[in-house]
């Protein structure tokens, strides 16, 4: 963004204020004295302006903003009716900067809040109703989602390595994140839906970075998957979906399970033995399908199916041949390497950081499994790698 000289800035800013009759300088530090409003003046909104008036008002705002050499990160909303910007705070702000929002038709900008002097970016939702303030956090960023009308912040603040990417309908964001512990690095591709209390994993992997690039109208999230040494990078695309078995998905509630499978089940209450589940679980036994539900979270943690009627979202059923399984799943998913060694043939890493395992009528004592095209599916398990006592 080119900056004008200080003298030129003063001239343009003065002219702008004379023309518009603004009651405050753009970006005036919060708490500084404000010029008195003119008696009887009514402040119009953008809805009260014609397209020509909006265009002229935008030009005047831009002239005023560019006249101030200290203003930066000028970011217009997609509808071109609101602009965000940052300027240094006063001496009383102890090194913090200030974020402002100026709306077409308003005589002055609104103070949003103090921000760190390390703001990485400001970004708008496609519908211009929310914006994100991304402030530097270590090597990444912490993101504040703000309602542009009320200036209220979402209580959940996603952490990411880069600026999050908005879903086209403005209901969610996608971003890459990382976690480091005990010499291991995990990468995550996360989805946060506005209004939720937390984010969901779409993908996660050891020693992998995820860089989200776009989210298109067809629902494809386009991203780069890169190994930590930076020697291999792949462009990929995925949908934000949750694989399921017979209409039940990991993370579903009890009500969602009953909506899919009905109320004809037998419940086993949690006992002292929880196996590799992260919490005590209830087991719901349907005919040929077992559903494990967390006692604390109330969410489905595992689906175990042996019923011939059980079917995955890609149309594979118990009794189908291995060749059908591999034709449906190997083109979309990988069979990961186990931390215990060897490729997990017939087990697929699927969306939601989950695992979909197919059991076949193979020799149970044989490892690794030798799965032939005519082997038949005897069971299907949708779960998380940690519950399988693995990590991938």
What layout of secondary structure does this protein have?
Layout: H1 6-20, H2 51-67, E1 72-76, E2 82-88, E3 97-103, E4 110-115, E5 119-124, E6 130-137, E7 140-147, E8 159-160, E9 165-166, E10 172-181, E11 184-193, E12 200-206, E13 208-215, E14 220-227, E15 233-239, E16 244-245, E17 248-249, H3 254-261, E18 266-268, E19 281-286, E20 289-294, E21 300-305, H4 322-329, E22 347-350, E23 354-360, E24 377-383
Antiparallel strand pairs: 1-2, 2-3, 3-4, 5-6, 6-7, 7-8, 9-10, 10-11, 11-12, 13-14, 14-15, 16-17, 18-19, 19-20, 20-21, 21-24, 22-23, 23-24
Helix pairs in contact: 1-2
Shape: elongated
Biggest beta-sheet profile: 7 strands, antiparallel
Number of helices: 4
Sequence of strands across the biggest β-sheet: 18-19-20-21-24-23-22
Strand content: 35-45%
CATH class of the domain at 244-387: Alpha Beta
Order of helices and strands: HHEEEEEEEEEEEEEEEEEHEEEEHEEE
The level of helicity is 10-25%
Number of strands: 24
Radius of gyration: 27 Å
- Overall structural class, as computed from helix and strand content, comes to mainly beta
Protein name: WD40-like Beta Propeller Repeat
Signal peptide: 1-24
Region (Disordered): 26-56
InterPro entries: 6-blade_b-propeller_TolB-like
Structural write-up:
- This is WD40-like Beta Propeller Repeat.
- With 392 residues, the chain is mainly β.
- The chain contains four helices and 24 strands.
- Among the domains are: 91 residues, no CATH class; 144 residues, 3-Layer(aba) Sandwich (Pathogenesis-related Protein p14a), CATH 3.40.33.10.
- The strands form six sheets. Strands 18-19-20-21-24-23-22 form a seven-stranded antiparallel sheet, covered by helices on one side.
- Strand 1 and strand 2 form a beta hairpin.
- Helix 1 runs antiparallel to helix 2.
- The N terminus is likely disordered.
């Amino acid at each position: 963004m080119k900056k004008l000289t200080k003298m030129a800035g003063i001239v343009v800013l003065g002219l702008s204020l004379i023309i518009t009759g603004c009651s405050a300088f753009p970006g005036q530090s919060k708490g500084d004295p404000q010029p008195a409003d003119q008696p009887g003046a009514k402040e119009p909104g953008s809805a009260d302006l014609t397209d020509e008036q909006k265009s002229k008002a935008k030009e005047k705002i831009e002239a005023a903003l560019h006249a101030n050499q200290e203003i930066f990160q000028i970011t217009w909303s997609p509808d071109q009716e609101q602009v965000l910007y940052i300027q240094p705070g006063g001496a009383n702000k102890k090194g913090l900067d200030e974020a402002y929002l100026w709306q077409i038709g308003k005589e002055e900008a609104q103070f949003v809040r103090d921000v760190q002097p390390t703001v990485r970016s400001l970004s708008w939702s496609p519908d211009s109703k929310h914006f994100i303030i991304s402030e530097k956090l270590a090597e990444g960023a912490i993101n504040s989602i703000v309602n542009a009308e009320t200036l209220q912040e979402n209580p959940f603040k996603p952490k990411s390595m880069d600026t999050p990417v908005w879903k086209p309908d403005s209901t969610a964001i996608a971003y890459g994140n990382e976690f480091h512990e005990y010499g291991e690095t995990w990468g995550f591709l996360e989805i946060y839906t506005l209004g939720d209390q937390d984010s969901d994993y779409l993908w996660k992997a050891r020693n992998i970075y995820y860089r989200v690039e776009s989210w298109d109208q067809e629902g494809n999230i386009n991203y780069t998957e890169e190994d930590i040494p930076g020697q291999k990078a792949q462009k990929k695309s995925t949908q934000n979906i949750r694989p399921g078995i017979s209409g039940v998905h990991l993370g579903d509630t009890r009500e969602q399970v009953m909506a899919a499978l009905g109320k004809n089940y037998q419940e086993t209450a949690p006992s002292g033995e929880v196996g590799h589940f992260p919490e005590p679980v209830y087991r719901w036994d349907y005919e040929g399908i077992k559903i494990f539900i967390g006692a604390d979270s109330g969410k489905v943690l595992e689906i175990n199916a042996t019923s011939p009627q059980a079917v995955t979202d890609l149309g594979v059923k118990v009794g189908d041949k291995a060749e059908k399984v591999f034709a449906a799943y190997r083109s979309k998913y990988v069979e990961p390497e186990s931390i215990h060694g060897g490729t997990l043939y017939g087990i697929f890493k699927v969306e939601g950081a989950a695992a979909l395992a197919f059991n076949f009528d193979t020799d149970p004592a044989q490892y690794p499994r030798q799965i032939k095209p005519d082997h038949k599916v005897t069971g299907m398990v949708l779960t998380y790698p940690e519950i399988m006592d693995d990590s991938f």
